[in-house]
Amino acid sequence: MQAEQFKIKKMFYQTTADFLQHESANSFNNEMILIKGARAFEFEKISAMLQEKSHATILEINLDALVHNFNFYKSKLAPQVKTMCMVKAFAYGGGSFEIANTLQFHRADYLAVAYTDEGVDLRKAGITLPIMVMNVEVQSFDNIIEYNLQPELYSMRIIHAFLNFIATKKSQQQYSVHIKLDTGMHRLGFVKEEIAELCILIKSNGKLKVESVFSHLAASDESAHREFTLQQINNFNAICNEMEEKLGTTFLKHIANSSAIVQYPSSHFNMVRLGIGLHGIGNTAEENDGLQMVSRLKTTITQIKKVAAGETVGYSRKAKLNRESDIATIAIGYADGLSRRAGNGAYTVTVNGHEVQTVGNVCMDMLMVDVTGIACNEGDEVIIFDSRPSILKLANAMQSIAYEVLTGISQRVKRVYVNE
């Protein structure tokens, strides 16, 4: 024991069981608690006792896998190429601060969020990396400045509004911004015909520091659109060269998303953007072989009952049983992010190593599955997805994509972070 080395108020316990016998969740209030130790100590029992959310459905996030994926993509880049990591939409459902903090520790260069509020929350949580805000609104300019965020400027309207706003600050400082180009996505961004006017405005004003110029690839994940993607990259490069010449300065250039990093080396320029790939969802065999799945969605069996042949199950009596069946109700529904499209046999979940089909409509908070012939009990774990094939299978059942599966997981679902 090294108790005398800790010059603070302290308590020591010989075992985890000893701690649990003498303490309870009521012993702690409005505190941040670090639980750290080898698996042999069974500290997960302490974590379970302390957890605020008791919903049986859990999204388990492996931060080691996240770091592995980050390093996989970095290995494809020249040493001078920087990384911008997307942590918008609650970091693709994984938890904004936890993901951002891990990426900050492992030396990502920039973060990107969709809206100003997301950036403000990260700043309040202690994230210090440069943060680009992609969907900037005029009413958010105050917070952009106060919290040292960097706006994406994508149109003449928004750049004039921002210049008018910073003119009221009576400050001599330059404000870091990111210029969005439209090279074929046709969503947000300046088009080629606006570049001359844009450069004159930026250069004559002198208040804007162009951190980066970037664009979005519309179809880099589909080989059928390879020529279009290459044309986007070439157009982007030409516009960037024109801007550097007109502005008399250099800046970061980024158009590559996760899939383009592997498939289009010419798109790297001096920065790339990492999104879905960080979570282990690749687009090619090379990517998928090198990536690790980050998220695992699981729940438990609430009840098991025998239901006679000919009976119906669930809302609208959508499922009619053709044999006597063991029907398990599990603690997940569409309010947790599991689409109703996954019901009525469209998807299978895993119970004790066995794939079992959904039965009837997905309810708001529950779902029924057929466990006939499967050795299982109430309280047993049910895996909704835990691998790339299973999340893609779920996305297919939902008639969607893995992005929507991950970002659609409700925040009422408890996030548990694994980091060896």
Provide a concise account of the structure shown.
With 420 residues, this protein is of the alpha/beta class. Helices cover 31% and strands 21% of the residues.
Task: Indicate the mean pLDDT.
Answer: 94
Put simply, the count of helices is: 14
CATH superfamily of the largest domain: Alanine racemase
Strand content: 15-25%
Low-confidence stretches: none
Q: How would you write the strand order of the largest sheet? A: 8-7-6-5-4-3-2-9
Shape: globular
Binned, the helix content reads: 25-40%
Termini separation comes to 24 Å
The main sheet comes to: 8 strands, parallel
Structure report:
The protein folds into three domains: 10-50, no CATH class; 63-290, Alpha-Beta Barrel (TIM Barrel), CATH 3.20.20; 295-418, Lyase, Ornithine Decarboxylase, Chain A, domain 1. The longest helix is centred in the middle third of the chain and has 22 residues, at 226-247. The two termini are 24 Å apart. It is globular. 37% of the residues are buried. The protein is built from 14 helices and 18 strands. It has helices at 16-22, 44-50, 63-74, 88-92, 96-105, 116-124, 141-146, 156-167, 195-205, 226-247, 258-263, 285-290, 388-397, 402-407, and strands spanning 58-62, 82-86, 110-113, 131-133, 150-153, 175-181, 208-215, 252-254, 271-274, 295-307, 312-313, 319-320, 325-330, 348-351, 354-359, 367-370, 381-385, 414-418. It is of the alpha/beta class and 420 residues long. Helices cover 31% and strands 21% of the residues. It has an eight-stranded parallel sheet with strand order 8-7-6-5-4-3-2-9. Strands 10-13-16-15-14-17 form a six-stranded antiparallel beta barrel.
